[in-house]
Amino acid sequence: MSTYKSSGVDIDAGDRAVELMKASIAKATRPEVQGGIGGFAGLFDASALKKFNKPLLATSTDGVGTKTEIARAMGIYDTIGEDLVAMVVDDLVVCGAEPLFMTDYIAVGKVIPERIADIVAGIARGCVKANTALIGGETAEHPGLLAEDEFDIAGAATGAVDADKQLSKEKVKAGDVLIAMPASGFHANGYSLIRHILKEEKLDLGKQYGDLDKTLGEILLTPTEIYTLDCLALIKLLGENLRTFSHVTGGGLADNTARVVPDGLVAKFDRSTWSLPQELIFMAHEGGVPQNDYERTWNCGVGMVAIIDAASADLAIKALAARGMQAWAAGSVGATTPGAARAALEGDYR
Q1: Which class is domain 169-346?
Q2: pLDDT score for 24
Q3: Mind listing the pLDDT tens digit for each residue in 69-87?
Q4: Which of 112, 152, 236, 296 has the fewest Cβ atoms surrounding its Cβ within 10 A?
Q5: How many of the other CB atoms lie within 10 Å of CB of 271?
Q6: d(CA 254, CA 268)
Q7: How far apart are CA 23 and CA 3, in angstroms?
Q8: In 3-state terms, what secondary structure has residue 334?
Q9: What is the DSSP string of 155-172?
Q10: Which residues, 6+ apart, have CB-to-CB distance to 21 below 8 Å?
């Protein structure tokens, strides 16, 4: 006799996972959320958009990539969800949008309710940090496609911004200042390179190496910083003097910043304004990774960049410091030949 359970799918385990995650999801809400979990769709009261003159909806989707393999190897699942939220909502805020709600998708080889609950707890915690409602999700069991302990996660979020307050590269001007916000680690990018180094150099995730203040595994699982509320606070404070943001993800600092700089201008970062994180120095040394390669792979200690009118730079830095974000002036925008590179790193790290 064949049953769904004998094929590898356990409906009862899925139901148990839903029960375990309810408490976490209940914390990740907003007043606009209608109903609870368990329906076929999440509901959000769109009358909230009435506060905008001409609301533009913004949407973003992303995953965590192979950082999930570090979580699996460590047997730690309650942090990776924060990475997912950060990757999604901090893309939205680049255009000035306030993230409103998010949904997630978790694929597993075998549903282990406690593990699913841990993953969702991290997602919910990230949503709380971004004031974003978690209004729905899906857990899919894929026996035969994924090993029992393998998993992948993805998510999507929707936000809104007033049309006349939308941030864009067209607002960037020569003389603007680059305000760098520190990364909390490698975030969720470049982990294919990290895992390659781990394998080739036979590094132990459970070991504390050299100047690192935690085990290598703990450092590699440090959740991605969520900048959403800091960025929204800057938008409210500075208005038109804030041009746009650059979320530093895959591709590194220069390549991501180039995406928000118009032709004919160049964002020049001065490396001497900050030091490389110890974990990056360690991984680059162990793997023999050249500077031009790690700068296009890892964030090099900068997770978000605000491009701001020079007269507002000090105010922005002080406002972020008051929120616990120790930002700094890391460079400026200047004129360049049309068609030339739109972002570059200069000098030496201090």
Answers
A1: alpha beta
A2: 82
A3: 999 999 999 999 999 999 9
A4: 236
A5: 19
A6: 9
A7: 31
A8: strand
A9: EEEEEEEEGGG---GGG-
A10: 116, 117, 120, 121, 124
What pLDDT is attached to residue 3?
57
The tokens describing 299, both together, are 């964030």
Q: Which residue has the higher pLDDT, 130 or 43?
A: 130
Contacts of 75 (CB under 8 A, 6+ apart): none
Give 121-156 pLDDT, tens digit per residue. Answer: 999 999 999 999 999 899 999 999 999 999 999 999
Reading the block at residue 263, the tokens are 């032709």
Whether 25 and 120 have beta carbons less than 8 Å apart is answered as: yes
- Taking residue 335's Cβ as centre, other Cβ atoms within 10 Å add up to 11
| Pairing assessment for the beta strands 98-108 and 151-162 based on DSSP bridges | antiparallel
Diameter of the chain measured on Cα atoms? 75
**DSSP 8-class letter at 225:** P
CA-wise closest residue to 271 among 342, 331, 332: 331
204 φ, ψ (degrees, to nearest 5): -100, 115
CA pseudo-torsion sign 99, 103, 108, 114: positive
Distance from the first to the final alpha carbon of the chain: 68
Question: What is the Cα–Cα distance from 28 to 135, expressed in whole angstroms?
Answer: 8
**Sole residue written with tokens 């974003």:** 132
Find where tokens 């994180």 sit: 277
- Listed in sequence order, the residues at least 6 apart from 318 whose beta carbon sits closer than 8 Å to its beta carbon are none
Fold agreement between 4-162 and 169-346: no
Question: Where are the chain's structural domains?
Answer: 4-162, 169-346
CA distance 42 to 44: 7
Residues present in the chain in total? 350
- The CATH fold of domain 4-162: 60s Ribosomal Protein L30; Chain: A; (3.30.1330)
